[in-house]
Amino acid sequence: MTKNQILMRQAKQMLAGNWGNVALATLIYMIIIGVVSCSYVGQLILIGPISVGYVLFIMAVCDRRIVDFGNLFKGFDNFVQTLVAGLIYSIAVSIGMFFLVVPGIIISMGFGMTFFIMAEQPGISGVDALKTSWNMMKGHKWDYFCLNLRFIGWGLLAILTFGIGMLWLTPYVTTAGMNFYRDLRYNVNRG
């Protein structure tokens, strides 16, 4: 596995020159999430499709493909499967958090690659994407947790900007997660 600091540095390099586009895409993503968050049911229904779409957008930007804001809604092309994945993911993490925080974190880390998998394999079922993520993350949940911990300070700074900093932090975190996913999935040593 590539070290987390290298994954983060590469994420910044991949986003260089596209911060304006990813900030705008993140704003659209956050508005949609914010609107549907008014209803827990609405959030459960849309979290999968919109998350897959956001990942598709970030992947396209990082792979230097044409910036297409329509990618944000591509998760709806496979609506049933992204819905299933989002529902199971959200419910499993919520139950884990309800009983104790640690099981919720373990479940979240285990399913953490689900939306990356669905973005790369549009025909995969939601359940298969969750299973694939869980299997991929065996022995790597701690590494992914540590990667996410590295963003806590940035998150606190983003909160101090009344959330405006999240427009840049969210794509940074997502891109670092994508690098983790690709490193794990394809055994790519980018260090």
Give me some keywords for this one.
about 190 residues, single chain, mainly alpha
Write structural notes for this entry:
- The chain has helices at 4-15, 19-36, 40-62, 79-99, 101-110, 114-120, 126-136, 141-149, 152-160, 166-186.
- The chain is built from ten helices and no strands.
- The mean pLDDT is 92.
- The N and C termini lie close together (9 Å).
- By secondary structure, the chain is an all-alpha fold.
- The longest helix has 23 residues, at 40-62.
- The protein is 74% helix and 0% strand.
Number of helices: 10
- Distance N to C terminus: 9 Å
Q: What does the main sheet amount to?
A: none
Overall form: globular
Number of strands: 0
Rg from Cα: 16 Å
Q: Uncertain regions: pLDDT < 50 for 5+ in a row?
A: none
Strand content: under 5%
Q: Could you spell the SSE succession in H and E letters?
A: HHHHHHHHHH
Name the helicity range.
Answer: over 70%
